[in-house]
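Private note to self, pasted from the team thread so I don't lose it. Backbone tokens:
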């Protein structure tokens, strides 16, 4: 192996991470080993990274790079295999980004959390673990929020803590070379968008500063900054200072290394996705290659879907598609289209422009289509979104819910929201508040000038007011007298609380239909509604008898009657969707002008039912079942077959009852016999005792002389003795 000679100095590091370099985590002023597998002189960091990735003679896990001499030292060693990294100025260790749990942490290199007097830094310490296992346990910890861990290589101990370095004024170096320890911090949500470079800064190019924030909050501030396109930030651990910059290392000629001054550099990763599907309640997206200019000839589509009954709120931190010509939707421009399908309106399209700051959709689903041509390019856009409860909405879906804006967080001041719940015609609405937390008005009375909820039994505020609500008491359920409810919520500028959450559902009137003696009463909660909003009722034919019980003449009469009724009262229904006779055919409720005709049709149908019953009864009395020939009507043959089935069923039932009766008698006799034998045995013992006391004769005589035993008892005892 080649031996490495390192020269100590300080300086600048040029360039920003390129394609291969981005596969490595850079740790300035550190080396992993002094014994390497291969030396490559006079190459750039990108070339060194490429050679490591493509190396086939050994498993290259990283490299040490001398910045002044441009020497590349490839190695298969890892911090774990060599018991920790070493501090060395003017040399940087590039560790291949690990897979698995360690990829969720930032490696800050040599050092540990700085101890604080009276503070227990580590909530849990475990021995004999690998570095990867320590990271996994920190991620899986549920008794406290594990934010960092220090790994001591000497005894393979894992020291987990809820504190980050910024909480304890930085990382403490360890002077003992035999006591090597490395510090790791969890990459929280917003830090995942950045490349970390510890102990480096963009010197003199910070444009905005925030004090006393965490690294994750600093990363979020950079992403959401609107005054500049934030491409990187420097974070000073000791004071928790966040310094935003529109520059990167390549823009200023390189990063400046400050030794161990506890300042770390984070550079925004380029956004690479051209389209995607987003199903979370909040997120962000950007034009390809953001924060640099987007490529030509793009056609990207992102689909954002949030939970039902919510809408999507999108806001732009940056929007720059060059200089549009005329209409923003024109094909001559690079354009961003927002499309959603609105019930009743079809596909609606909106073209975002330079002055677009915020968009709130009408539904819970929206598509963003980004189209570019071959002539223009620009930085593009950065969009954040989140799911919100709509403030003004018309709710038409059954079993729905709604809430104040930001619920369960506090609603904004000076809010005026209106929700119209509109159900199908002839439906009613039940409204239930699951949680209410509004400003308390005092004395149990609600004042319209303060935060309050008003419920109206109609579509406007001129309708009857059902209730006025305030405070935090959850009221009872409310019901409308029609298919529309209006809920109005107003807040002032004084007190903002969490607001309310409510659910609703549609209730359809119950329809009771009179059926034949063969059919039970039918109850319908959701009756069908015709196209002209005329309610449907339901008439039935006998379902207890199959069609084959009717004679051919009765079938013709029935068909004629039913077809006449249907033609007069029912709308046309396709054969695939129409109901069978056993379940009834939906028909329109008759108009008053046709009441007499409807009554006559009902009477006619009832007579047909009576004719069917009479024919069955007459046939039972006069006809004897016999063989079926070709001239026997189908209906009569079925009557004969069903009569035989009924007789067989009755005989079978009678036989079963008789067998059960015999079995019951046998059981009863056996029980009586058991108790009778026991009683006789006791009586016999009493007789023998009396005779022994009397001192007289044989067993037979003593039995006949005894006056204490009845005649029947004596006979039973003698019978038992004889059996014995």
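Design output:
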């Amino acid at each position: 192996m080649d031996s490495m000679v390192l020269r100590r100095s300080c300086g600048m590091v040029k360039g920003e991470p390129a394609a291969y370099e981005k596969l490595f985590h850079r740790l300035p002023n550190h080396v992993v080993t002094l014994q390497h597998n291969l030396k490559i002189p006079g190459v750039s960091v990108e070339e060194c990274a490429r050679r490591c990735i493509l190396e086939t003679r050994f498993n290259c896990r990283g490299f040490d790079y001398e910045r002044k001499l441009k020497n590349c030292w490839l190695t298969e060693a890892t911090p774990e295999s060599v018991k920790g990294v070493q501090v060395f100025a003017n040399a940087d260790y590039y560790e291949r980004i690990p897979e698995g749990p360690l990829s969720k942490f930032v490696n800050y290199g040599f050092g540990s959390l700085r101890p604080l007097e009276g503070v227990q830094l580590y909530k849990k310490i475990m021995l004999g673990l690998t570095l990867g296992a320590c990271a996994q346990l920190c991620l899986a910890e549920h008794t406290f929020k594990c934010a960092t861990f220090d790994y001591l290589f000497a005894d393979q101990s894992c020291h987990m803590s809820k504190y980050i370095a910024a909480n304890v004024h930085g990382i403490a170096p360890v002077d003992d070379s035999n006591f090597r320890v490395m510090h790791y911090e969890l990459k929280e949500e917003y830090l995942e968008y950045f490349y970390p470079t510890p102990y480096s800064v963009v010197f003199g190019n910070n444009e905005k500063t925030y004090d006393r924030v965490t690294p994750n909050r600093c990363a979020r501030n950079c992403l959401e900054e609107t005054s500049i396109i934030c491409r990187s930030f420097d974070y000073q651990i000791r004071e928790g200072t966040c310094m935003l910059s529109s520059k990167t290392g390549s823009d200023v000629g390189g990063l400046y290394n400050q030794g161990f001054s506890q300042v770390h550099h984070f550079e925004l990763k380029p956004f690479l996705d051209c389209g995607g599907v987003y199903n979370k309640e909040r997120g962000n997206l950007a034009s390809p290659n953001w924060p640099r200019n987007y490529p030509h000839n793009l056609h990207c589509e992102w689909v954002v879907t949030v939970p039902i009954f919510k809408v999507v709120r999108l806001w732009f931190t940056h929007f720059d598609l060059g200089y549009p010509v005329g209409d923003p939707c024109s094909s001559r421009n690079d354009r961003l289209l927002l499309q959603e399908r609105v019930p009743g309106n079809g596909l609606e399209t909106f073209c975002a422009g330079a002055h677009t700051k915020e968009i709130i959709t009408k539904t819970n689903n929206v598509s963003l289509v980004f189209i570019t041509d071959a002539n223009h390019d620009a930085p593009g856009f950065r969009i954040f979104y989140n799911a919100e409860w709509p403030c003004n909405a018309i709710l038409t879906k059954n079993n729905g819910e709604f809430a104040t804006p930001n619920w369960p967080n506090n609603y904004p001041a000076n809010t005026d929201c209106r929700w119209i719940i509109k159900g199908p015609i002839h439906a009613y609405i039940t409204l239930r508040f699951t949680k209410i937390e509004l400003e308390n008005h005092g004395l149990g009375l609600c004042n319209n000038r303060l935060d309050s909820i008003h419920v109206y039994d109609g579509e406007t505020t001129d309708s009857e007011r059902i209730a006025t609500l305030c405070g935090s008491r959850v009221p009872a359920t409310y019901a409308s007298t029609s298919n529309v409810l209006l809920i109005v919520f107003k807040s002032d500028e004084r007190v903002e609380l969490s607001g309310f959450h409510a659910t609703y559902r549609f209730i359809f009137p119950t329809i009771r239909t009179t059926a034949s003696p063969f059919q039970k009463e039918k109850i319908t909660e959701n009756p069908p509604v015709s196209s002209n909003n005329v309610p449907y009722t339901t008439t039935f034919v006998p379902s207890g008898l199959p069609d084959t019980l009717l004679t051919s003449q009765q079938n013709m009469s029935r068909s004629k009657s039913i077809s006449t009724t249907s033609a007069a009262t029912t709308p046309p229904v396709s054969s695939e969707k129409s109901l069978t006779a056993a379940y009834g055919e939906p028909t329109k409720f008759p108009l008053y002008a046709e009441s007499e005709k409807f009554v006559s049709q009902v009477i006619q149908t009832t007579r047909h039912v009576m004719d069917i019953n009479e024919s069955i009864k007459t046939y039972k009395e006069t006809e004897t079942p016999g063989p079926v020939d070709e001239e026997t009507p189908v209906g009569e043959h079925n009557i004969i077959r069903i009569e035989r089935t009924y007789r067989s069923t009755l005989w079978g039932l009678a036989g079963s009852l008789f067998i059960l009766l015999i079995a019951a008698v046998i059981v009863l006799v056996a029980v009586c016999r058991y108790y009778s034998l026991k009683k006789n045995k006791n009586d016999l013992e009493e007789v023998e005792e009396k005779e022994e006391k009397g001192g007289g004769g044989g067993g037979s005589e003593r039995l006949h002389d005894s006056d204490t035993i009845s005649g029947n008892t004596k006979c039973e005892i003698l019978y038992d003795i004889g059996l014995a």
